[in-house]
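Quarterly update from the structural biology core.
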Amino acid sequence: MAEVRAAEESLMRTVPPGALMRRAAFGLAVHCVRLLRTPYGAPVSLLVGAGNNGGDALYAGAQLARRGAAVTALLLVPERAHTGGLAALRAAGGRAVPAGPGAERAVREARLVLDGIVGIGGAGSLRPEAAALVAAAADGSATIVAVDVPSGIAADTGAVEGDAVTADITVTFGCLKPGLLVGEGGERAGEVRLVDIGLLPHLPPPTILVLSDADVGTLLPVPGPRDDKYTRGVPGVAAGSSVYPGAAVLCTGAAVRGGAGMVRYAGGAAEYVRARWPEAIVTSGGPASAGQVQAWAVGPGMGTDDEADRALRDVLAFDVPVLVDADGLTLLARAPGLVRDRSTPTVLTPHDREFERIAGPVGSDRIGAARRAAADLGAVVLLKGSATVIASPDGGAYVNPTGTPWLATAGSGDVLSGLGGSLLAAGLAPALAAAVAAYVHGVAGSIAAGGATTSAGGVLDALPAALRALARPDGQRRVRPAGSASR
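Predicted structure, tokenized:
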């Protein structure tokens, strides 16, 4: 978070003293008022530590008190509480007391709890007194709002080493922090809301990007009046076997429904693919005889025997982008040079256990792990998870915001692979193709589940609805910079 602190210092030199904190507090208070709906008389507890996050909470509490809320600030380090914030809260009619006996009851009875214990500079587990108040908040019925980051979460990585806040809402300032997007931090942040405090011009160019619906809508391939089945992109699919024919059906189907003009299938489940997807061009001679393609998706359900190894090597010998998943990753772990030596782009799509086989343990820093693997292997690495991370060899990264636990079902990754292969064939840059595929996949998963449950087949069937939901109304494809997170 050094870049964020440096940007804050740079911005503070251009505004009156205290202005930056008041901007943050105002945005925080606006979100709190919306959550309370009727602030008048509402019991609000502020968990206030020593530092600027505590000051943000106190100033926001002052604005809530002026609207009639019954605000009590519980000071964890009274002698180091922000003096300006304390004065503002008391002047507005709020109370400030040491976080001693009776504090836990006040937290349990609150309608809203503001977590201002520690901020982006915090590290490690919460102290026992703070942890007790956090536990009391979790036991109560209050909406828990974290100030900038939930206390106890590493803002850089999302790692949690001990007791930490689990927020319903995190109101963060200036830019998205990586720890709010990935790992346990992403799970504990709840809904993340960004408040603009004027920080962006003072930050370096972002290296972590987060796509939005609008971004994906501009990137999805849209056929023009002069397109034909070849110009729309022809992906090859090498997936499935007699043991796992479903992987071939799912992967090929996602390529068909992902926007490809034509799909060529070369794998060990030809009869199943031909029966389910008659529009696919099926060959029984293996990838080397599949014909011309613009990209390949290889690996799902193909096995790890000698025949599968030959198929993987044949695919990687093509001078086109290749997406490798599942069994293909297991085979690559035995011969990583197959990827390192390629002159054309490769996208690898491991879950944590597959990642460990090719690049070692993921650890608590998922973005850092994906970046290290991408740099080492010279490939785009899509590390699957509740917040999928896509990292490029140059250090750039995307974090996907549409992940859903409903995608944790057998065959879901096969759908992602086919979709990614289709987008690669359509001409999207490798990292963008992976990021857009993950985004659409997540949307399809949510549509398919509908709040209940789904299967990989359901996700596949929901792809057209997801693509329709994200497509630009005017049917035009435009590319513009994505949203960003800072690190």
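The chain has two domains: 2-204, 213-485.
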